[in-house]
């Protein structure tokens, strides 16, 4: 990945750009690095039991068609990667049993290989997954693994910053409400 492109993405993250926009740009940058490379980025739902696709820039209709994938031992590449807490590189979804429940959802897009790297906070909380797809069966090479690692680090930074900003907003809103309640009680006492 080019340093200038990475710098531009980090600038977007720091400026508070919408998460979906940042993740789409990261996926597009990775797709531009390889021949036939397709990327998706997945985020956990509120209860942490499923992953939903948040970015799939070169797969129109993918997000709506595929829906959520369960986190577990047979959750496709992404759900299984989070479950195992390690990357899962499926070279052919037609042959791997972890794809039995989801294979039919990806076949309309011509996808055969799915490599997924799970993303976690430093304290082990699930941030999501970064996935690379190919329309032919294939295994990742050294350059592919480095690309996945670099892109995953950047996506992880973007997701974690978004989560932290959301927590700060919620805390600010709670404090504001507490202050309003306290001021209301103080006003009544002054009467």
- The rough form would be described as elongated
Portion in beta strands: 15-25%
Indicate the percent of residues in helices.
40-55%
Backbone CA Rg: 20 Å
| Derived structural class | alpha+beta
Could you tell me how far the N terminus lies from the C terminus, measured between alpha carbons in angstroms?
Answer: 66 Å
- Largest beta sheet, briefly? 6 strands, antiparallel
What average pLDDT do the residues reach?
87
Low-pLDDT residue spans? none
**Helix/strand order, N-terminal first:** HHEEHEHEHEEH
Count the beta strands. Answer: 6
Separate helix tally: 6
Sheet with the most strands: spatial strand order: 3-2-1-6-5-4
Structural summary, described in words:
The structure is a single chain. By secondary structure, the chain is an alpha+beta fold. It has helices at 3-14, 19-33, 62-66, 76-84, 103-106, 142-190, and strands at residues 38-44, 50-55, 68-70, 88-90, 113-120, 126-134. Strands 3-2-1-6-5-4 form a 6-stranded antiparallel β-sheet, sandwiched between helices. A hairpin with a 5-residue loop joins strand 5 and strand 6 (126-134). It is elongated and about 75 Å long.
């Amino acid at each position: 990945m080019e340093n200038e492109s990475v710098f531009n993405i980090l600038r977007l993250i720091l400026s508070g750009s919408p998460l979906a926009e940042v993740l789409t740009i990261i996926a597009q940058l990775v797709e531009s690095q390889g021949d036939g490379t397709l990327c998706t980025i997945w985020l956990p739902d509120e209860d942490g039991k499923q992953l939903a696709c948040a970015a799939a820039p070169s797969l129109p209709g993918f997000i709506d068609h595929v829906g959520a994938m369960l986190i577990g031992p047979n959750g496709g590449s992404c759900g299984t990667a989070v479950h195992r807490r390690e990357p899962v590189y499926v070279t052919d979804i037609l042959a791997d049993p972890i794809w039995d429940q989801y294979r039919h959802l990806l076949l309309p897009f011509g996808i055969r290989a799915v490599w997924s790297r799970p993303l976690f906070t430093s304290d082990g909380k699930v941030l999501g997954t970064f996935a690379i797809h190919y329309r032919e069966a294939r295994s990742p090479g050294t350059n592919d693994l480095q690309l996945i690692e670099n892109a995953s680090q950047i996506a992880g930074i973007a997701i974690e910053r978004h989560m932290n900003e959301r927590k700060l907003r919620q805390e600010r809103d709670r404090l504001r409400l507490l202050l309003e309640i306290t001021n209301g009680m103080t006003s009544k006492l002054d009467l």
